[in-house]
Amino acid sequence: MTVRLDTVDRKILSELQKDASRSLDDIAKTIGASKTPVWNRIKKLREAGVIKRTTVELDAEALGFEACFFVLIRTSEHEADWQDRFLTALQNRPEVLEAHRLAGEIDYILKVIVPNARAYDKFYQALISEVRVFNVTALLSMEELKSGGGLSLDP
């Protein structure tokens, strides 16, 4: 279900996507509104499910996670039981930052952040011991060019 947003809602969301740690006063001043209406709108946007959660973005390399792999998975298994086991395996692995089911020749793509290639191999061995897959291709990201830009909220 799509939520209707007015111009003020869009401005608030754009500012929150840039830096959600900013004070309400700062956000209100930036968008040309007062603090209480901004707070009320944020509250309504949370209740409507537009704002899912507030979190912090960490620098993976600064924490020793220097390898980002995109893992392409093909499977010949499409039964509900296999999908449940696969989803459980992914949810139990904090190194999987994103997982998407795809249309086309590749069934799933995972974004996996680990300290190094050895850690990736450990992840890979654990994953294939839990769920059967037909083919796995791992692509090492050499450089991140863009990340976390936020949604474009232009009408």
UniProtKB/TrEMBL annotation:
Q: Which PROSITE patterns match?
A: HTH_ASNC_2 (PS50956)
Enumerate the spans annotated as HTH asnC-type domain. 5-66
Checking PANTHER family in the record gives: DNA-BINDING TRANSCRIPTIONAL ACTIVATOR DECR, LEUCINE-RESPONSIVE REGULATORY PROTEIN
Q: Which Pfam families match?
A: AsnC_trans_reg, HTH_24
Could you name the Gene Ontology cellular component terms for this entry? cytosol
Query: Which example biological process does GO assign this protein?
Result: regulation of DNA-templated transcription
Q: Which InterPro entries match?
A: ArsR-like_HTH (IPR011991), AsnC-type_HTH_dom (IPR000485), Dimeric_a/b-barrel (IPR011008), Tscrpt_reg_AsnC-like (IPR019888), Tscrpt_reg_AsnC/Lrp_C (IPR019887), WH-like_DNA-bd_sf (IPR036388), WH_DNA-bd_sf (IPR036390)
Name of the protein described by the UniProt record: HTH-type transcriptional regulator, AsnC family
